[in-house]
Every structure is written in structure tokens, then in C-alpha cells.
Amino acid sequence: MKSGLSFLIAALRREIDELDQLARTSALVATIGRLIHALQRERGLSNVFLASAGQRFADQRTEQATACLHAEEAVRACFDRLEADAGSIGNGARLFSRIAWVLPGLDALPALRRRIGAGELTAAEATAAFVKLVSGLLAVVFEAADGATDPEISRLLVAMFNFMQGKEFAGQERACGAAAFASGRNDADRQQQWLHLIESQERCFQVFVEFAGDGMAGLWQGSQPAAQRAEQERLRRIACAAPAGVALDPELSAAWFDCCSRRIDAMQSIEERLAADLRLICERRIAQARAELEAHEALLSRLPADAGTPSAAFFDEPPMEETPPRTAGAAAPFGRQLERSILEMVQDQSHRLQAMSEELDTVRAALNERKLVERAKGLLMAHRGLSEEEAHKMLRRTAMSQGRRLVEVAESVLAMAEYLPGEPRR
Amino acid sequence: MKSGLSFLIAALRREIDELDQLARTSALVATIGRLIHALQRERGLSNVFLASAGQRFADQRTEQATACLHAEEAVRACFDRLEADAGSIGNGARLFSRIAWVLPGLDALPALRRRIGAGELTAAEATAAFVKLVSGLLAVVFEAADGATDPEISRLLVAMFNFMQGKEFAGQERACGAAAFASGRNDADRQQQWLHLIESQERCFQVFVEFAGDGMAGLWQGSQPAAQRAEQERLRRIACAAPAGVALDPELSAAWFDCCSRRIDAMQSIEERLAADLRLICERRIAQARAELEAHEALLSRLPADAGTPSAAFFDEPPMEETPPRTAGAAAPFGRQLERSILEMVQDQSHRLQAMSEELDTVRAALNERKLVERAKGLLMAHRGLSEEEAHKMLRRTAMSQGRRLVEVAESVLAMAEYLPGEPRR
User: Whole-angstrom Cα distance, residue B187 to residue B246?
Assistant: First the structure.
């Protein structure tokens, strides 16, 4: 029969296991961030390569594919390590299932590159393929954030996920704008999509600032020089504020691409800082928990094996008088003082875990927005037989035409679930 | 480098681990239910024993203590088994911390019994001690329900927790009424507390009916014969509807106790049925997941080790033409048909886990009510230096005097957090 103190120790051990696991998932998130960055660059280069009928960026595209390959290997190695440690992952089933979903995408990259090299795809098709892959990788990051059990780490992972998602919207904006300038004109649909990408990334960076803490938020502001921001806003205005159909100067395509790329590269350095902070926090939390564990184990070693938890203080409400030890011999060597201190330790830990779980709920609420959108998509897919892409487009179109946020439209869809046509097909 | 299919299998393995663990926690919940039932009976007997100055129920109390001891041993054995398997418990840290909190209470039971036997405690003090112990055991059940990762099992655990909590309110009502009748009069405070216990148990049983499914709800209705309900309502009316201070017939104490006990014993048989259902569902879900795992492993064994996930279909949006296998030899033996079926399997599993996680959120929302109350208590404890009991009484008093539900008062307290006096002390 184990004592209360043994379970206190078991609780701390579990906490350390969970923190170790979080350190591994945090490392995975950083590694995925680097692969996404490389893929975003390859997407941009491929885009210009295809739009210029193979005239531009041919060499850079090949170099970038090599960079991607290295980043991909690092991610795959992280995946494999994670699988070897599968036992201690909280939401392992969902995390692994996301990984299973995205791996065929990585496997299919060589074929995609060959087809781009042979000019068999349009710029839009190539972009869509990269977007799909990056979104699969971001889904892995999302699960990692959603499975975190420590509020401080979870907070940084939520910041990181939103930053990465915002960066991806910035990357899509780069592609969208590059295609618009390169083609020499803009149209109303693309203008709408463009504005939507600007709005989406701003929302992501807002959440990031909210969760990353003041130091990181300051770093983020400082990483965007005013001159660069002004140049980007000028190019945005030229393309988006002009009436649809107006001619655009194709020479601006390169200026736009460079301007966006500088901004996105700066984002990458913020992401690396976030990753380093994550690593530090994981290490600090693990060290804290280990120190506490050692203190508890030292206390446990002072108790004889059959002592049970000293407990006369448990029912002290209503107050009990000083009583002799309950069982002859067993608890005798321990004064009321030691009994009380163990009981207080148990209660302190309960309160600490309680407080952690409260803060965790608060942090996780920030992930709910994405969950609502996913849920609304799933509903549309089931009731209307749409593909995921079609469902997303439908939600986005409604949001754009009604001037509402995507999550608001998703909420409306979920609220009207029973009015949707047809039987769910899944 | 592992393929997508390997991670699909890893996801299923994790799911099976989680289900195995859920089967163990479900067994723990059932075992705790039996101990709580035995303690509730001992509390009732001790109450009458003390109120009658040792004249009544002396033998039954001793017998009941033995029954409690057996139930306690079973619970401790479950705790120990759980600790041995600590690795795969999702919210292990919190679950173990709850166990650590309650074990000193079990350790202190012999001393409590001795003091009751010696008549050193009032009936109210003895009741309070048992209430504290039962509430600690229910907190373990709550964590078990909150940590469940399968919506179907989680649903039944939520039903079970609410049923057990409702039964505990019924047990407290029995003690409250027995003390009132035995003392020969009722007063306004006790009447208020009594009505509050009636209302609290009814709310718990509502949640139970909502989550347990129609069959179980029918069983619950059927377990309460109309004649017995009528008798209980008559006794409730005599004590609570009369003006405060009116004399009560002490002879009714035994009738009240028997009537309540019959009802509570009937509840125990419902609880056993719930426990049996839980066991069945766990077994069925584990069998399902194992069958799926075998199918996946059979498929994996058909792939050569270096094949990777067949993946040409991944980027089929935009549609790709039939392409030759990407890497010479590797994927060659597999037709597009097999590639597609694996990709669909991955996507099906993603959707299934997604749907499960949605339903899980819905089920867990039902646990939030309790979390809000705990949180409001914590706030009051920190800001006003109250004990947990005092904080709970304060919330309950406000709820009673304002005719609002406890959770509504808790929400108000949380919403006004910044207006609370004093600095948080923790």
C-alpha cells in the first residue's frame, strides 16, 4: 500500500515525463518551422520560375530544393524520435495521425519538383501544392500546441503557432502579389484574396503579441523597419487600391518579391528566438520539477516503509485536539510538525496543479478559433459533399462578401447545422 | 525514415494505450463508488449513533466499519496498480495529486472511528469529516472523467461522476434530515441547507440522464418506486415546509433514515450497472482499435521496408495525370489503387480523430460547471484568506440567499475578480 507522499512523487514524475515530452515536441516545432521557411522560399521561387516560363530563378530553385531536403531530413528524424518515445505523449494519437497525413506530401515532393521543372504545372497549381503541404505541417504544430500540459510552455507554443501561421499568410501574400505584378494586371477576385491574406496575417500576429510576452513583442516590432513597411504598403496600395483590371508594372514583381522576402526572413529570426525561448523554458521547468522531486524523495526516505502518510491533521476541520499517534509505533517517530508539513505539501501541490490547469484552459481558448473553423469545414464537407479545399473557399468567400471574420462565419455555420441541406455523408 | 503508414499505426497504438488506461481508470471509478457507498452508510450510522448518545446502531456501525475496510483495500490496490502503469495516463500528474490528497484521509479513518466510538465528536463534526473524505474521493473520479480521451467513454464517466455526486448529496440529505428529526425540531438554517441539497442532487441527476443514454435513464426512473418517492416527499414537506422552529416527531427519524437508505441503495445498483456498461464499452473500443491496427499492420507488411508512403495522390488537387512511380523500383509494385487506399485510410483516420475530439469537447463542457465553482473558491481562498470549506459555504450562502445556482454565483465571483478586496495571498 502506497502512501500519499508516494503519489505526490508519482505526480511529480508524471509532470517531469510530460515536460520532457514537451521539450521534444518544442524541438519538433522549431524544426518544422525551418522546413516551412525553406518550402515557402521554394514556393516563391517556383512561382516566379513558372510565371516567367522558366526564364528566372532556375538555379536558385535548384539550390533551394537542396536546402529543403536538409530541413526535411531534420523533420523526419524528429518524427522518428517522437515515435520511439510514443508512450509519454498526451495527445499522441492525434499528433501521429497529423504526421501520417503530411508524410505522403513530403514523399511526393520530388515528383512535384520534377513537374515544376518540366513546366507541367501553372504557377497557381504549384502554389496550391506547396500551400497544402505547409498547411499539413502547421496542423502538426497545432496538435503539439494543443497537447501541451504546462501553461507557460503552452502559451509560447500558441504564440509560436500563430506566428508561423501569420508568416504563412505573409508567404501566400508574397506569391499572390508576385503573380499579380508578373501578369501585368490585377483582378477583383485576386484583390479580395489579397486583402484577406493581409487581414488574416494581422490577426495571427495580434494573437502572437498577446501570448509571446512584452520582450518578444518588442523584438517583433523592431524587426520591421519603417522604410520596409512603407515600401510594402506602397506596393500593396498600387495593386489593391487601384480599380480592378488596371495595368500593373511587371517590373514591380521583383521589387515586391524582395520586399516581402526581407520581411519573411526577419520573421524567421523571430521564430528562431521563440524556439530558443521555448527550449530555455522547458529546461527551467524540468529543473524546477526535478528539484522538487528530489526534496520529496529525501523526505520519503526519512519515513519507514510501513508508515503510511502521517494523517492525524487531515480531519482538522472540525478542529481536533492533539491526539496520540493512531497506530502503535508506525507514526510515532514523527511529530505533528512533520505530519503537517507533508499534508501542506500535498495541498500546495494540489493548488498548484489546479492553478496550472486553469491557466491552461485560458491559453487553449486561443486555439479554439481554429478548431471552430475546422469544425465548420467538416460540417460542410459532410453535408454538402465538398472537399476540404472547397469548404474552406466557401467559408472564406462568405467571410469576404459579408465583411465578417472567418471564425464568425464558422460559428454561424455551426449554429445552423440542422438547417444544412442533405444528410451527413460521413 | 518512417512512412506515413507507420505513424498511422503509431497513432492507433497510442489510442489502444489510452483505451487500456481508460479501462483501468474506469475500474478505479467503480471501486471508488463502492467505497463511497460504504462510507456514506457508515456516516449515516455514526450520525444516529452520536445523536442517540451511543444508544442506537452501535453494532451496525462496527459491522459497517469492516465493510468499509474491505472497500478501502480494493481502492488502495487500484491506486497502486495505477501508479505502476503511470506512463500512459494522460493527466497523470493531476490524478495522482488528487490521490495523494485523499490518502491521508483514509489513513486517518481509524482515529476518526475511535473518536466517534468514544463519543468525542458531535454528529455534525463526524458528518463533516466523512463529507470531506468523500469529496476527496469524488475529486479523484472527476479527474478520471476529465482525463478521458475517448468521447464515448468520457460521456459515461461524466454520467457516472454526476450520478455519484448526486448520490452524495442524497447521502448528505439523509444525514441532515436524520439530525433534524432526531433533535425534535428544525431551524431556518438547516431548512435552507436541506432545500439546497435537494436542488443540488436534482441537478446532478439531470446531467446524468442527459449523458447516460435512454436505457440507463429509464432504469434510473424505474428504480424509484412511486410509493417510496411519495413517502420521502411527505417527510421532506413535514420538516421543510413547516415554519422554522416547529417541533418535529423524533420517531420519524428512523422512518426518514430507512426511506433515504432504500433510495440510496437503489442508486448503488444503478451505479453498478453504469460501471458494467463502462467496462463493456472499454472492451468494445479496445477490440475495434486492435482490429484496425491488425489491418494496418497487414498492409504495412506488404510494403518493402524502403518504400515510403505511396504518395503520388497527395497533390491531386490540382489533379495530376497518371505518373510513373517517382523513385525507380521503390513504389513500383504498388498500383495507384493501393496508393489511394492508403492515403484514404490516413485521411479517414484524421477525420475520425477530429470528430472524436469535437465530441470530447462537448462532453467535457459538462465538467466545466464544477471547474468554475472550484475556481471561484480558489479566488476567495486567495483573496480573503478563507479555508476551502469557508469559501464553499460563502458561495453556497450567496446562492441560497439570491435564489441563484451555485455556478452562476461562481461566474459572478470570477467576473468581479479585480474588485475583490486584498492582494491574492498565494
Answer: 8
Between chains, do A311 and B107 touch, taking CB under 8 Å as contact?
Answer: yes
Q: What is the pLDDT of residues B180-219, one digit of tens each?
A: 888 888 888 888 889 889 988 998 999 999 999 889 999 9
**Cα angle, residue A413 at apex, residues A411 and A415 outer, rounded to 5°:** 70
Q: Is residue A313 part of a domain?
A: no
Q: A379: which DSSP letter?
A: H
State the Cα–Cα distance between residues B101 and B329, nearest whole angstrom. Answer: 61
Boundary of a domain, candidates A287, A306, A331:
A287
The answer to whether A109 and A72 have CB atoms below 8 angstroms apart is: yes
Q: What's the CA dihedral at B273, B278, B284, B286 to 10 degrees?
A: -150
Contacts of A89 in chain B (CB under 8 A): 14
CA dist list (Å): A245 to A173, A184, A240, A242, A260: 19, 10, 10, 8, 23
Where in the sequence is the domain holding A359, given as residue range(s)?
346-417
Q: How many domains does the structure of chain B reveal?
A: 1
Chain A closest-CA separation from residue B295 CA (Å): 16
Task: Copy the grid coordinates of residue B202.
Answer: 436534482
CATH number at residue A368: 1.10.10.10
Minimal Cβ distance to B101: which of A129, A318, A346: A346
Contact criterion met (CB < 8 Å) for B94 and A132: no
State mean pLDDT over B91-117: 90
Tell whether A312 is covered by a domain: no
CB atoms within 10 A of CB A391: 23
- Determine which of A315, A350, A368 to mutate to test the interface with B (most B C-beta atoms within 10 Å): A315
Give the count of Cβ contacts less than 8 A between chain A and B. 258
- Phi, psi of A35, deg, nearest 5: -65, -45
Nearest CA in chain B to A86: B14
Q: How many CA atoms lie within 13 A of A414 on its CB side?
A: 16
Sequence-distant (≥ 6) Cβ neighbours of residue B380 within 8 angstroms: B386, B391, B394, B395, B413, B420
Q: What is the pLDDT of residues B245-286, one digit of tens each?
A: 788 888 898 899 899 999 999 999 999 999 999 999 999 999
In this predicted structure, the answer to whether residue B223 has a pLDDT above a threshold of 50 is yes
User: What one-letter code names the amino acid at B337?
Assistant: Q
Residues of chain B with Cβ-Cβ distance to A102 below 8 Å are 4
Do A240 and A377 sit in the same domain of this protein?
A: no
Residue B365 covered by a domain: no
Q: pTM here?
A: 0.81
Say yes or no for a CB contact (<8 Å) between A326 and B115.
no
CB contact under 8 A, B378 and A354: yes
Give A319-323's long-range contacts (Cβ < 8 A, gap of 24+): A320/B115, A323/B111, A323/B115
